[in-house]
Protein: Phenylalanine--tRNA ligase beta subunit
Organism: Pediococcus stilesii
Amino acid sequence: MKLSYEWLSKYLDLDGVEPKDLAEKIERTAVEVDSVTRLDYKLKKIVVGHTLEVTDHPDSDHLHVCQVDVGEDEPIQIVCGAPNIAADQDVIVALHGSRIKDNVKIKRSKMRGVKSNGMICALQEIGYPDNVVPKEFVDGIYVFPADSGVKPGDSVMEALGMDDDIIDTSVTPNRGDMFSMNGNAHEIAAILDQTANFDVAEIESSLQSETKLLDQIKIEINDEKDTPVYKMMGVEGVSIKESPFWLQTLLMKVGIRPINNVVDVTNYVMLKYGQPLHAYDLSSLKGKTISVSDAKEGSEFETLDGMKRELRSSDLMIMADNVPVGMAGIMGGLDSEVTNQTQNVVIEAAIFDPIKIRKAARYHNLHSEAAMRFERGIDYSALNQALKEAAILIAQFSDGRVLDGVVEGSNVKKSPQVVTVTLPRINKILGTSLSKGEVLDIFRRLDFETEFDDQEQTFTISVPVRRWDIHIEADILEEVARIFGYDNLPVTLPTGAPTVGQLTAKQKLIRASRNVLEGLGLTQAMSYGLTTIAKSARFVKDDHAQVKVNWPMTKDREALRMNLISGLLDDVAYNQARSVDNIALYEQGRVFYANGSGQPEEIEHIAGVISGSIQAKSWNEPEKLVSFFDIKGIVEQYLKNLALTGEITYTAVQDLDGMHPGRTAEVKLDGQIIGFLGQIHPLTAKEFKIKETYVFELNLTEIVNAQKKLQHYSVISKYPAITRDVAMLISKDVTNEQILNVIRETKQANLVNVELFDVYAGEHLEDGMKSMAYQLTYQDINDTLQEDTVNQEFSKVIEQLKEQLDATIR
């Protein structure tokens, strides 16, 4: 909410209270303040000019040479290219030596040989954003209207009210009352211990018509839960034209574009009272019955912004004889908008179900000023006055007359909320020693009617309807605390026995995981927990149910992720699209499965992705592209560092969605699947627009819960090691893992390492056979090994290989 300091000054005595000091008081007591700004910041020497003569530039088809009166002894000459420049206009002139937007300095110059002593400016050039500039001046210079009262030489910053301070507040959902100037005036009055002065408009007899609105329109509201209040007033004989200059400048200051005298009044009243209004062309509704009902599923409706929107059955619509004319609480329809031909208008003031308005606004991405207020709540007590003032102002500004009567469809009344709290309770919770008088004074400042029972030491507070956020004792305690001042509350230190802070076993393992993977060359990445429905279900073999978001912000954030790889592949695609081809990333986070209980099951996972070169090309080394065995080696080393007691095995799998059927393996711990690794399927890689990529994903929760070895450091042996090489012919069906199992199962007291160093299958070997060569390393940490001891152990290995695998030793 953008608060005009000048407008607030009409309600309160702000003399001696600087805008920044006031903003700090608001932030300390009520809601957060985003900024305090002035539109004239760093602007200087910008004045009102009156164009006396405008002629075509002799050497240009679009430039004009203007003689401009700027309040000096002689007119000045300015070359201007604006399409709407003409003689006898009051315009914005930046003089020689002036500063305009972005601190740009204007100097005398020549434009195609003609002297120019300044610049005639558009509103955007002096700091106004495009979206608040009146449409007729968006592509040209600004021309002051006749009722502005400006004269040559006047300061433009003062004429347009740019010297006003704008306090931009961030209104929280519970403080919808502060989405209005009146609501802010009430709040600031309590902060400053003042009484706000509010004006009350009444319809003068000269503005009153004898024609009854009820004879022209009817309202039927069937569901008061959806629409607790719905009222209309009308104005006949209107002339659609520009709003008064003061109203246009006020709206532009607070970020709203002036449209015409009818629309601008509805926006002004909305800012003042926090009550959104909508004006319809009465000719489009005359003789019809107005109602509020749910939309027809799948039907289309064209809103005022010219967009056609597909409606849902839960969207509330304003109907005229069952034909939609507006989206309730959000935006009106194009067919019933006020145009330059409109002669009679009807003004709608209503209160709608805030939940339905919020859901519709989010779904249709229509977060209008009206919707933001409706979804936070509306002041029931201000609606009648807001509707009446809007009708009066429209009649005044359009030379019309207010139709007789208010047509009501529903009018639910709200009574003040009554809350009780005791004085001892206040002091106990806040840690204060406030007296009865001090607390009563706080309630007086808040304009809460209060009675005090001396015997029970109890306050009975009648909370005004405008403060619909207060219901219970805790709300009252908060009001006392913030008006008393949070800085004034006593400061105490917590008591109790201190505890030694330390990481849990799970936290330690997660940190260790990150250290290991970073040590292996991977960089941590972080992805969104929400993704598309299709990506969420990728790379998941088990039949898990998805967790979908009821009201997604966007189409690509519709479901909670069931894997981490999709997010990492998005990261790969992002980098490769920017010519970063060598990528090695990992992510540790949670995936989510629906379990039927309403609360999704959260499971810790860890995943990695590598694409491009595992080793960059250099003068003495060729480039090495990543392969299946690189990603497998990373997983093996990671699991080895975690010292799991169980047996880790890898089994080929061909039916995992999104993975290459010939280059994918499941990772098992004691026969139970804990993850997978392999190459992304070429079709999936094409879909993500990435190159050949390898990934892994492991269930970190299973790893955390698995049994682990107690790790300790061993002294490096000072005695030499002895190696033995063995080469064998063996069937192609025998795997490396089988051979290693045979070697390990043979009793070897001093065998410390086995390494495969050669594999050959081809010419000079029998069909179905291959040659494999291993190096076995023996070492004793306590003594020097003897040849005989090593030979005995090595002989046992040879025998077992022959016996169990039918190997031929070469």
